[in-house]
Queue: 2 jobs
Job 1
Amino acid sequence: MEKPKIILGIETSCDETAAAIVQKQGKRVSIISNVVASSLEIQAKYGGVVPEQAAREQLKSIIPVIQEALRQAQCKLAKIDAVAVTQGPGLIGSLLVGVETAKTLSMVWKKPLVPVNHLIGHFYANWVQSSDIRHQISDKKEGQSDDRRLTTDDSTPSFPAIGLLVSGGHTDLTLMKSHGQYEYIGGTRDDAAGECFDKCARLLGLPYPGGPAIAKLAKQGNLKAFNLPRPMLDSGDFDFSFSGLKTAVVNLVRGKDFSRTPLFSSNLAASVEAAIVDVLVRKTILAAQKYKVKQIIVAGGVAANQKLAETFSRVCDRLSLKLFIPPPSLCTDNAAMVATAAFFNYHPSDPLTLQANPNLSLAY
Ligand code: KG4
Ligand code: ZN
């Protein structure tokens, strides 16, 4: 099988519609174009993602987003070697839009179709060259710098590594043995880290998505103001639980008119952020020590959190562990990570039979 050099990636697992064209030369992966359309304003209005609404928005955006990715790349169709698409997990209505579009393009263009696990895809944001990201992505969100790549040099990760995936739906620790070999070693028993950020933000009257809103407010707060629980820190396994933290916040805000006491909100935001970061970093380091690995790969929307990145960076420096965290724009859902994952996990599927799978898991 001839190795692909240029892949079109498509990502529609939740509320972002994304397409990217990514190129591989030797070990180097670079972005040619990377387009993300988000229905964030609509989700913010409802305080979260409404699945039917998200699927309808996917339908509206998918063709314009792919067209824009092709236009920006100025890439002739003949140059594209394969189409990669997120197969799952995610919302079934949203996934179907991407998968059916990719199947159609694969058949009409006569290009191989490569299914990608969304969770694995997140990790592969760490294989994209950072210097290219700086040049290619201009639509940075407020307060985000794409210059951030927390590695001691500009290399890409190698194996074995401990992978921490922290997103809206997942908090998973995995032992990454090689491309395609990922052993799940623990995860959340209830709420995911991103979900905890989102729910605590809602309790504080902050908009969706809650992670960036809490992080912004936390900058003005004292992280020691509230002694919030750090559940399962000493459980002896690699599982997490964040629902107790949310309950503690419920009890603190109950009956309080905190709109009149801004310091209360910023102190609570800082304390929530510190508690989540503390648990994530400490359990990941314990996993690295138990499995005797020297590399840590962090991925997913919550990896965009600056305090998490800084804390990981400080601790990894101290322990001589090599750390990889993507720049913020590649932490949240995007298609560059999907196309990049396809290069390293290149298993084309039959476009007539590929099915979206909302329950795809990390371990296989
Ligand atoms: O990976 P992602 O974009 O979508 C999923 O696959 O779930 O992650 C979204 C999650 C949301 O819960 C959002 O609040 C969180 O990532 N998030 C953050 C930050 N940016 C996004 N959490 C903390 N700090 C941030 N800066
Ligand atoms: Zn995601």
Note: Residues 132-147 have pLDDT under 50 and may be disordered.
Job 2
Amino acid sequence: MHTPTRQLSLVPESSPVLHHIALPVTLFDEQLHQTVDNMKDVMRKEGGIGLAAPQVGVPQRIIILLDLDTQQPQAWINPVIVQAQGWMWHDEGCLSLPGKRVRKMRSQWVKVSACDENGVRHEFERSNLEAACVQHEIDHLNGVLMTD
Ligand code: CO
């Protein structure tokens, strides 16, 4: 059965879902693939470099990251930071907090373990802006906004 998914969009800043801990994904099914495709569309439309599912009202541990080299969006499911090194100050914005900028202390390098859309687990490393972005999006999965 093919269940049509509504087009997702950013939820308002006041939405409770932005402050809740998102649930792990357990089914890597067509529904997940539709949510991922939908999230990539929202991120592209809004001009972001990262997006977390709670930002579009989906309380699941899904993030989209823009690969800055290829400019392609990548979906990561149930991501966990398994190693981090160094510190840096980073000026951040957030699609859920339009117009706001916050200077955050972030790890300069991270190793992340996460599943792809098919449930296969990968490890990957990110540094500088891309490292800050992963940390920002995983914060969203834990109900944490950059202003908290
Ligand atoms: Co954000």
Note: The radius of gyration is 14 Å.
